[in-house]
């Protein structure tokens, strides 16, 4: 069975679609190109997943959206690969061009404590037990490395970018409930190379940067992204769940929008205590997101020019910084 089964040109500003075999019970549907990361493609992925949810295909039993793909599990006894591709073609025909897409999307507000002690502990454990000469460890933290790698003036400039935009959960994966967030404002783009080798411990709730994505660690785990802060728990997988997770153990869903508010570590510790005691109410607003809102900002000439200037400054800075 060939790896690439079909390719489709959808036209009208929509991405190219590549259908790939993924075993005898799954198919990988890829959209657009691997580089650069394109939010328009990700919006199309979510629109297709949402449409499949409201217009189910007989024989298709699970969909896993990625950054620019859908992994589709199906029953080959009920539907053949050929008929599944035909059904997907029909669904794609119903999806408008990205600028006209409206998606179900919740707005979540999370507090964040920058340069917290748990993050420093993870970095120092790494320095002591794994790689004493790691170039991304500067004075027991990763923050100053992120600042230099992105060509920023200081820590405050980094914090402003994190706090000054809304972050879009492009997909969840690697661990159950781990969100990969991209900025809706292109002026807030950041890049971070991965650890080499990876850490053996990352605290639950750690917020970190890897490639173009911010992640929030839902559990204590391994990790290779640059840590810069910590937030509240975003998953609760035990049978006895705290108030915010009684319906769904995973807090952040694909397509959610996240904003961060800076607080002190002492304040974060108190809020985390409230979460574990079942007294904290997460700030979650249900709603929908019109993708046109993103394009209205991202295509504004002043924004395009500033985002380009910042990318150029970042590229120049990266030539001077050692990669782990």
Sum this structure up briefly.
Pfam families: CT_C_D. The chain is of the alpha+beta class and 324 residues long.
Keyword list:
alpha+beta; 8 helices; 5-stranded antiparallel beta sheet; 7-stranded mixed barrel; Cyclophilin; 2 domains; Gyrase A, domain 2; 324 residues
How would you describe the overall organization of this protein?
It is globular, with a radius of gyration of 21 Å. The chain is about 30% helix and about 25% strand. A hairpin with a 4-residue loop joins β2 (about 15-20) and β3 (about 25-30). With about 325 residues, it is of the alpha+beta class. The protein folds into two domains: about 5-95, 2-Layer Sandwich (Gyrase A, domain 2), CATH 3.30.1360; about 105-320, Cyclophilin-like (Cyclophilin). The model has no long low-confidence stretch (mean pLDDT about 95). The strands form four sheets. It has a seven-stranded mixed β-barrel, surrounded by four helices. A five-stranded antiparallel β-sheet has the order 1-2-3-5-4, with helices on one face. The two termini are about 40 Å apart.
Give the helix/strand layout:
Blueprint lengths: L3 E5 L8 E5 L4 E6 L7 H16 L5 E6 L3 E6 L6 H14 L7 E3 L2 E8 L2 H13 L13 H7 L5 H9 L3 E6 L6 E5 L15 E4 L3 E5 L2 E4 L4 E3 L2 E5 L26 E6 L2 H12 L6 E3 L2 E3 H8 L2 H18 L6
Parallel strand pairs: 7-15
Antiparallel strand pairs: 1-2, 2-3, 3-5, 4-5, 6-17, 7-14, 7-16, 8-9, 8-15, 9-12, 10-13, 11-12, 11-14
